[in-house]
Amino acid sequence: MRHNKKFNHLGRTASHRKAMLANMAISLIKHKRITTTVAKAKALKKYVEPLLTKSKNDTTNSRRVVFSYLQDKYAVTELFKEISVKIADRPGGYTRIIRTGHRLGDNAEMCFIELVDYDENMAKDKVAKKVTRTRRSKKNAAAAAPAEAAAETPAAEETKTEAAAE
Question: Whole domain around residue 154: which residue ranges?
Fold first, then answer.
């Protein structure tokens, strides 16, 4: 019987699944956001959140435990130096999964998984992109500017003539 042994095997052997989740966790730590399928993102969330909790306590043992999962000393260093400082006051829920639609080739449901405390960096990039204007808006702005100037000129002349008449 297989009671209480329910988790997503992701169609892989145990060693392949372990290596894939470790690689995805390293990418998430380095890049703060990765795009993947929803099933893999959910499995990664269960894999990486205990590591993030472990990183709050910066001891030699916790570093060794995290390194045994990740096998990448640069990712472990970044996790303990930068990320653990940002998540220190958060009691859990360090990652967020946002669904982005379906993949074109096989219609797999896609999403991106990101570290919650790093979303303001991504939001600033989006705001900067919204500032750019399109070609059409430049034409409209250029056409509107002379029209406003022309509208202001007769009004200014009328006020001058009324002031002179008084």
Answer: 133-166
DSSP letter string, 17-69: HHHHHHHHHHHHHHHSEEEEEHHHHHHHHHHHHHHHHHHTS--HHHHHHHHHH
Q: What are the pLDDT digits (tens) for 152-164?
A: 555 555 555 455 5
Q: Does the pTM exceed 0.85? A: no
Q: Which residues pair with 97 in a beta bridge?
A: 113
Give the number of domains in the chain.
2
In DSSP terms, 137 is beta-bridged to: none
Any idea what DSSP says for residue 121? Answer: H
CA distance 36 to 24: 9
Angle between helices 14-31 and 38-55 (to 10 degrees): 70
